[in-house]
Specification:
With about 260 residues, the chain is an alpha+beta fold. It has 5 helices and 13 strands. The protein is globular.
Length: about 260
Amino acid sequence: MSRPEAELHRWLETARRRLEGFAPAPEATRYGRILRVGDEVVTVTGLDRVRLDEMVEAEGGGRAFAVRISREESGCVVVEEGAGLHAGGRVRPLGEVVRVPVGEGLLGRVVDALGRPLDEGPPPPAEDHWPVARPAPPIVDRDFVREPLLTGIAVIDAMLPLGRGQRELVLGDRKTGKTAIVVDSIIAQKRSDLICVYAAIGQKTTTVRQIVDAVREHGPFERCIFVVGAAESPPGQQWLVPFTACTMAEYFRDHG
């Protein structure tokens, strides 16, 4: 037997052994049909087993997640535009809820609600992908609020002091300085060890760029994450922004 024939014989024997243990199993994929599309909401029929917040993908491009489910039809909010999102198109469930990347690779980056880069940089390296809908830790597992959080604004620090781990709502009419208070508080953390996650929901792109530039120039930009759902973003992304920002922040909370 010549050398080429021997090599061919060995290859055939190896292929035969591999095929002996191969038992293909049929896979069933359930598809739904788009009934109508309006105001960035896709109404789908035929997905009676879809879960709340589960992602669905359209043939031809486009993704959405389920926010209203029933046996007859489901309502899905668009998070990624695509040519497949039209009446009569087919969609399939992806089998998982909305997940976003988390980890230190997101620090110093500007991303959208799905963790995709908006700063013209490469995709941020993710240490894990967490679902945006996660149960809150039990009260007994939460630590006490012991350390102050200095905002750098004397009136707030003196009269309404904040603590690390505390939640605070900033209320006010339009153009009263709510964003300025938050941005100044982020800049004031330049000499601390805090990680700041800023969620921009429905703001103009120019406004977001000004905020990012201000923090880059004066604040701890390398310890900040900016999650942006600008005014021109799909409503689904704007709706996801606060959940995405909280999920990314919870990673650092759970990892010290």
